[in-house]
Amino acid sequence: DQGSWATFMQTHKVPLILAYYGFCSSTLIVINKVAVHTVQAPVFILVLQLLFSAVVVKGLNCAGVVEAEGLQWNLVKPFLLIVLGFLGTLYGEPCSNVQNTEPRLQKAASLYCLANVTACESSRRGRQQQQ
Q1: How far apart are CA 88 and CA 77, in angstroms?
Q2: Does residue 62 register a pLDDT over 90?
Q3: What's the 3-state SS for the chain?
Q4: Distance CA 60, CA 67 (A)
Q5: For position 54, what pLDDT does the model report?
Q6: Which of 39, 46, 73, 118 is least crowded, fewest Cβ atoms below 10 Å from its Cβ?
Q7: With contact defined as beta carbons under 8 Å apart, do 61 and 68 qualify?
């Protein structure tokens, strides 16, 4: 029944989003570890992931599946430090130590948490400025 499904989704929205985010993050970590071990070019893999994500979001936006806003410099600026920090985790470890990606993953996880806090804060500020 369509009504009960919508009610279920609305009632359990936050836990479902958290579960989906956790699933995506954990699988991406495993895929990244295998990719970095196989290709041994972490920055190249990062660039491919970012380009792929941008193309998918743009395609879904054009198809009308999702509504994605354009980039706004005042919202992009706070993430530049996070991007630089993430690149620092890639270049901060010795290149010969590609096998041991756990320290990088721990740093990246911290940066993901910081990115989420920054996104929430930027979103809150954007809503306040619109009001």
Answers
A1: 17
A2: yes
A3: CHHHHHHHHHHCHHHHHHHHHHHHHHHHHHHHHHHHHHHCCHHHHHHHHHHHHHHHHHHHHHHCCCCCCCCCHHHHHHHHHHHHHHHHHHHHCCHHHCCCCHHHHHHHHHHHHHHHHHHHHHHHHHHHHHC
A4: 8
A5: 86
A6: 73
A7: yes
Q: Side chain identity at 33, as an amino acid letter? A: K
Tokens 């954007």 found at: 126
pLDDT digits (tens, 9 = 90+) for 8-42: 878 888 888 888 888 887 888 788 888 888 888 87
Helix axes 42-63, 73-92, angle to 10 degrees: 150
